Amino acid sequence: MQEIKCPNCGQVFQVDESGYAQIVRQVRDKEFERELGRREQEIRQQKDNDLALARMQQTQNFEAELAKIRNLLAGKILEIEQLKAQIGKAETEKKLAVAEAVQEKDRELSDKGAEIAKLQNDLALRQKESALRETNLLEKHRDELKLREEEIERLKDFKARQSTKMVGESLEQHCLNEFNRIRMTAFPNAYFEKDNDAKTGSKGDFIFRESADGIEFISIMFEMKNEMENTAAKHKNEDFFKELDKDRNEKKCEYAVLVSLLESESELYNSGIVDVSYRYPKMFVVRPQFFLPIISLLRNAALNSLEYRTKLAQVQNQQLDLYHFEENLAQFKNSFADSFRKASDRFDDAIKGIDSTIASLTKIRENLVKSENHLNTANNKLEDVSIKKLTKNAPSVRAMFEQQKTEGSDG
Known about the structure:
- 72% of the residues lie in helices and 10% in strands.
- The protein is α/β, with parallel strands linked by helices.
């Protein structure tokens, strides 16, 4: 329970917690609304004051800018008046100059009348000559066009009479002729010949190789493909990629180029040099007119890397020399180890022989010592022998010795 004292009468009331909370909340809400109203009025008053001050400041700034603009405008008006005066003066001078120029031109025209007439006559003559030349050119072009049409018909008839093999060989011969035409000027040191090596079961048409200082920096395998227009089963360029890549790898060529007249309506292959490295690495398809440009492009690109190839070859040669040195050292080590092993084996055999000889000599020495002992024993026994001992068991023999001894003493 909470006690609340009335501020008017002083009476004290007791209320429970919920009632007390409601009274507190009512008082707090009324105070909050009163304070909110007061703050709202202050803010509104402050806003009005700020707005009035801003308007006053803006009015002052505007009047200042307006004064600047008026001054600037007055200056510009003055400049315009001055420019108008200058323009008027310039117009007057221009009119005088034009009048003088017109008079001068009139005099020149009168002097050049004869020259103009002459030029007109020359122009008419040249027009006649041009018309005659144009007629002659038209006649010449008609004759050339007729010859071209006859040549086209002849080629169509020739191609129709050709076999499939002859069609392909004609493209090969065309490429060979094109290369030989510039061989000595553009590729004097290059190798460009037919691929006649079919040991692996297949071969390309031509191989291009070029070296510098003994280092091959470019190699290209060429395949030429053509077919007759009336061929029933038309081939695609892609049909020959796999075989061309196989021939390139077998002949150890860096690039592969298919010179083709197949798919004559293809915008892709008619656009120029087509890189098909997305199917097989370093492979291109070209029309015959791009046969020489593709060689030049690949060769020039390879020439840029020739310095690095040379350095790489030097490093490889140094590594090869190091390998040979290590190989020779290994051979020397193996030979020395083999000789040392053989000498060691002979030394062991000699040691064993010496040990065996020492053992044999020791045994002989022991036998000699034993023999000496036996000889000493025999000598002792010899010295100890006497007739008495010898005739101990032979009294008759002893009697004979005594008798002989007696006879000897008597004589």
